[in-house]
């Protein structure tokens, strides 16, 4: 895993569901991100971050993600990289809406 910053557009967003394993009984949702080069990555939001960001992040809008931790997925997903946003994300994580110049801090 490593720290990174990138500007991406949200291609799709799932509904909130309940996890079956890692954070048992906790809410989660995922988004598919695409950069200007067409590369895709999945980001999954857990627990409090799930409830906070689900209503804020919108499909088709461009955001700058920074301070998060990205990992190479262990499974053979379509998206080889995944960003997990939850209780271990850290205080430096933030999302900025590039189109509206607003900041959302976790």
Label this structure with key terms.
five-stranded mixed barrel; 106 residues; mainly beta; single chain
Reconstruct the topology from this structure.
Layout: E1 2-13, E2 17-18, E3 27-34, E4 40-46, H1 47-54, E5 62-72, E6 81-85, E7 94-97, E8 102-105
Parallel strand pairs: 4-6
Antiparallel strand pairs: 1-3, 1-5, 2-3, 3-4, 5-6, 5-7, 7-8
Descriptive notes:
The protein is mostly beta strands. The chain is built from one helix and eight strands; from the N terminus they run ββββαββββ. The protein has one helix at 47-54; strands at residues 2-13, 17-18, 27-34, 40-46, 62-72, 81-85, 94-97, 102-105. A five-stranded mixed β-barrel has the order 1-3-4-6-5. The chain starts with a strand and ends with a strand.
Measured as a percent range, the helix fraction is under 10%
Cα distance spanning the termini: 20 Å
Radius of gyration: 13 Å
What is the structural class? mainly beta
- What characteristic shape results from the CA principal axes? globular
Mean pLDDT across the residues is: 77
Number of helices: 1
Strand order of the largest sheet: 1-3-4-6-5
Biggest sheet layout: 5 strands, mixed, barrel
Quaternary form: single chain
Assess the beta-strand content as a share of residues.
Answer: over 45%
Low-confidence stretches: none
Total strands: 8
The arrangement of helices and strands along the chain is EEEEHEEEE
What's the short version?
By secondary structure, the protein is mostly beta strands. It is built from 1 helix and 8 strands; from the N terminus they run ββββαββββ.
